[in-house]
Amino acid sequence: MITTLHIQNYRSIREMSLELEQLNIVFGPNGTGKSNIYKAIHLMHSAAQGQFSQALANEGGILKVFWAGKTRSDQLRRMNLAVETETYEYELQVGFVEKLPYPSQFQLDPVIKEESIWLSGQYRRPSSQLMKRKNQAVFLNNVHHEKVTHSGTLYENESVFGQLGEPHLYPEVSQMRESLRNWRFYQEFSVSIGSAMRAPQVGFRSPVLASDGANLAAAFQTIVEIGDELLLMR
């Protein structure tokens, strides 16, 4: 469960920290940033899936999503997304491409400047830090609780989560990644003629409803068989 969410320099949100409970309702006038909170959470989920650049491109690119208001000249141009769960705390800092010494059509790609994981409830100190990424250098705690350097090459426009495997070597990183991947988003279901919900499906036991609702019938039947059928029928 998400306990704290922090967003900085994302769309209309200059800086915001929210303490969350098991059920939360966000309300307010139009244009106050409600949907941007949802989108920011979805971006962290996309980072864990190895699809951060694609998700950002779908929103119009880094220039479209970056805070457009006034900033101090001495401030770094960083978009900061952070989440704390009951076990771990994760932070992603995104910036812009440095001036390249060669021609490139990807000057507006997002760049992961920093990425970190800490143990929750122990403050952000070196002893509680499980992963630290600065640009393309990554330092991690391995399964033996030793500080090691990742020797592979990282793409600067994607999260460590989409590029670092070996869960048996880095179990805490793997657990944080799976926690983010397991988030589900049900903002809207397409009901058009081409909707996945309308297409015939081969049903199988489905304890989790798909984000596009494709397994809706199977998910309902799963509740009937192994869940709370009476609550569903209400």
From TrEMBL:
Gene3D superfamilies: P-loop containing nucleotide triphosphate hydrolases. InterPro entries: AAA_GajA/Old/RecF-like, P-loop_NTPase. It holds the Pfam family AAA_15. GO terms for biological process: DNA synthesis involved in DNA repair; double-strand break repair. This is Chromosome segregation protein SMC. Residues 1-68 form the Endonuclease GajA/Old nuclease/RecF-like AAA domain.
